[in-house]
Amino acid sequence: MAAPDYCPCSDRSLADRLRHLEDLDAAPPTPSRPGPLTARQRGYCLEALLTDALAAEGLEPRASYRTAGEQIDGSFVIDGRALLLEAKWHADRLPASEIYAFKGKVDGKLVGTIGLMLAVNGFSDDAPDTLAAGKDLNVLLAVGDDLVSALSPSGSLRGMVTHKLRAAVDAGAVFAPYRVTIDGASRQPVRVERDDAAPSITFIVEGPLDEKIVGVLGHRVLRDAGSSLRVETQAARGIENAGLVAGAVRQQLGPEPLVGVVVDADAEDPGERQMRLGMTPAVRGRQIPIIAAAPTLEADWLAVGPDVGRRHRDRLVEQRLALVRVDVLETTSASFARFAGILRRYAADVG
Fold this sequence. Notes:
The chain is an alpha/beta fold. It is built from 13 helices and ten strands. The strands form three sheets. Strands 3-4-5-6 form a four-stranded mixed beta sheet.
């Protein structure tokens, strides 16, 4: 599928093409499109980019096509298995209903067909858990960060899909983040194969904001303890899926590194949520500590309540993270005190 002539930077690398699709107003103009890129045009440009990326890896892509009564964004083949592809770049996160609409397309194909759904701006918090609770698991989820990693020099679409397939088979995780080292930064591999350079400490959380909170405060705890270890975080996009992803990461990394889970307790008692999640098959008996913050992580650790709007909440979290002292926080939050204690004990054990 040739990129439409309104797509920006079609002659550049795949990663550059993706980057120039992020801001509709700032997209470089083309002879046929002197003004901003429209959201609809961006969707078609994304499809063309994915087709080119799959072709570059020899994954036999088929571009967007229509069957009786339904539109298919594409398909590709990896290791002899054909997968359906759906790609969305909406302004908001996709709700579970969008996933089920795609699942209906997958269910109507040959038995055993797998679908890969990419939502660049992510899925609603409950979407992975809702999908995993269904009877048949045949749809894998990917987000923009996965695609950025796959298009980087250290990653690949084949590696991304293989990682997600393995996590789904091993632990039933419908969303398993794919991360690789990018430009020497701290994005570390979370792949199927064991990697001796993998981080010593990995915490699975629910969403991107939780990644920031746990990563920043975990770094401060270890720094104050005189440890050079680092905390890596992975957003599982859901509470139940957090346990599934943690189980997959534990299986991949082996028994030695610290793998934990930090989730919101919501309306449930924190101890009951920790016990319930700890008894799930993916986590039970695998030395994965579960920490539940009540009612939410940002409320318990940073006093940012649920009544704060999303846009203001992100800004307020940034402000509170810059000011909070971990030694004081340990005296006011039982869940944070447990989190800090786990980090210190592990740092002391590994020296």
